[in-house]
Amino acid sequence: MTDAKFQVGAAGVDVDQLVADIRETVRSKMESGAYAGAQLARAERFNLQNLKRDENFFEFYLESLREAVYIDINDFEIRERRRGVGPLLVALKRSIWSLLKFYTYRLWSQQNQVNGLLLSATEEIDRKYRDRLKALEDRVARLESRTPP
Q: How distant is the alpha carbon of residue 130 from its chain centre?
């Protein structure tokens, strides 16, 4: 691992095995959907200056928003890694979740509505300006074809 930005080294550490384990964990998490929001996070790293340099960025950004616009309001599995008190903590967390679920779902559904409306507005603004730009380009092309150089 001499080309890496950092090196891992300690007595008894198999670096190649460590890297392989990390890659396998990332691969399995990607397949399970744990990194579903990674595209949006990658899009967020760019700034508005990049829109000037890359024509396809805005399309990519809108597609990322479409994929991540709605919050998943389904139940989730409650796990506990600690042994001994783990089952007790899981039961406590499930009880708390059952009490708060109604309020949480209301908030999430309202947030989903707002997210959907904002995405719709963004897409409509994009469509409007694309149509306007196309009309102006067509007009310029017609004007340029009429006037001699």
A: 25
Structure tokens at 135: 């009309």
Pick from 78, 85, 46: nearest CA to 64: 46
pTM of the model as a whole? 0.52
Q: If we measure between CA atoms, which residue out of 70, 69, 92 comes closest to residue 80?
A: 92
Condensed to tens digits (0 to 9), the pLDDT of residues 43-74 reads: 555 554 555 566 667 787 788 888 888 888 77
CA atoms within 13 A on the CB side of 96: 7
- Burial (CB count within 10 angstroms: exposed 0-12, middle 13-18, buried 19+), residue 57: middle
